[in-house]
Amino acid sequence: MTSGAPPPDPDENSARPSGDSAGPSGDKELSARERHELDELRHRVSALESGGPRAAARHHWLRSTGSVLLILLASLLSLLAVVSVWANSIVRDTDRYVATVGPLASNPDVQKAITNRVTTAVLAQVDVEALVKELQQAADQKGVPPKAAQLIDNLDGPIESGLKSLVSATVERVVSSDAFDRVWVNANRSAHSALDKALTGEADGAVSVKDGQVAIDVGPIVAQVKDRLVSAGFQPAALIPAVHTEFVVFASKDVGKIKWYMRVLEIIGSWLPIIAVLIAAAGVYLAVHRRRALIWAALGVFAAMLLLGITLSLLRTVYLDHLPAGTSEAAAGAVYDSLVKFLRAGVRAVGALALVTAIGAFLTGPSHVAVLVRTGCGKGIGALRGVSVSAGLRLGAVGRFVHRYKRWIGWAILAVAAIVLFTWNYPTTAVVLWTVVIVLAAFAIREFLDTGDDTGDDDGGAAPMPSA
């Protein structure tokens, strides 16, 4: 067509008869079979276009539902994982067990309860009536006047009261001494080997489980009190036989169920945390919006730790309300607090880690607050880098390397932090917070070293800062 030719009539195609052998584009007329196939293809394309969004929405709904279920399961398992690690440490780690029960030796409420228990055990071995009878016989032999003899007959009460005061004071001195701390710690260290059997109800030795009670034999304390009484001149104490009396560490009618649960948690204690992390990771990976899913997964774990902390406080109240008659509530509360001390520490550590993870995931997102924080930090680090470059710092190959592998360096920092937390025997809240501080410092150093240019420029700050 020449440049001066008029444009084709748009209605020309419609004006052509259907029997023409060629259209304006030169295509031949479609056969009946080809037209049928074309109509079928058009029908399929139309069906796909109309059903595509619905199928995609259904696919997203399934992914979102699966992600939510996995995250909820991981949150529940994180709660059980913290309890299982605690139970496993109490059973298998002697130092951990001693660190748990050791402070009880210096607890005033526990000392008072042990003093009362040992005093009762010692007095039960002293025959006050026999002492009064010996005194009466001695008075008769020496010809004591009748009024004095009558007074001696009524000395049962005063002698028993004075004897109780003497024994109680002696026991209190023993229990409050440094020697008792050593005896208590050594006894519990030696008894730890029997704790596994105690939790299964098969213990025989320093630790026992019977009649719904977990008890420790404090007979050696009675022996020390006996020696001190004899040294103080109370010779009848020499007749006190070897006494095996028990101090109840834990008492509950449901101890049978508890020891079964503890046994199960002990068996799975090493694997449950890993399983919980893997399920949470699967839930995040399955989600349509993974960063948002990571935030909810972290908040779910934090909520689980909050629930566990509240539950421990409620269980303390329930436990103290169901103590057997005659049990010291103050001592039982001190024992409970000591036993769950490291469990509470684990709850706080995991909760802090979950909260930090949620905040970190939020700050990497597109929200106005997150962008503002990242921009502010980036400008501050960039200004510091600019001042350093002006003072003569040349990043050179280091800056180019960091810029080229910036994302991999970030993943390496997070991987090292995760390895540290997972391999730390019993990470505390302080360990978690210090790890976070070190990670933030490492990311700041990475940002400082990133010149934003991998072409060989050594000015160390001229290029704009890339996104993380």
UniProtKB/TrEMBL annotation:
<keyword id="KW-0812">Transmembrane</keyword>
<feature type="transmembrane region" description="Helical">
    <location>
        <begin position="267"/>
        <end position="288"/>
    </location>
</feature>
<protein>
    <recommendedName>
        <fullName>Integral membrane protein</fullName>
    </recommendedName>
</protein>
<feature type="transmembrane region" description="Helical">
    <location>
        <begin position="294"/>
        <end position="315"/>
    </location>
</feature>
<feature type="transmembrane region" description="Helical">
    <location>
        <begin position="68"/>
        <end position="87"/>
    </location>
</feature>
<keyword id="KW-1133">Transmembrane helix</keyword>
<feature type="transmembrane region" description="Helical">
    <location>
        <begin position="408"/>
        <end position="426"/>
    </location>
</feature>
<keyword id="KW-0472">Membrane</keyword>
<feature type="transmembrane region" description="Helical">
    <location>
        <begin position="432"/>
        <end position="449"/>
    </location>
</feature>
<feature type="region of interest" description="Disordered">
    <location>
        <begin position="1"/>
        <end position="32"/>
    </location>
</feature>
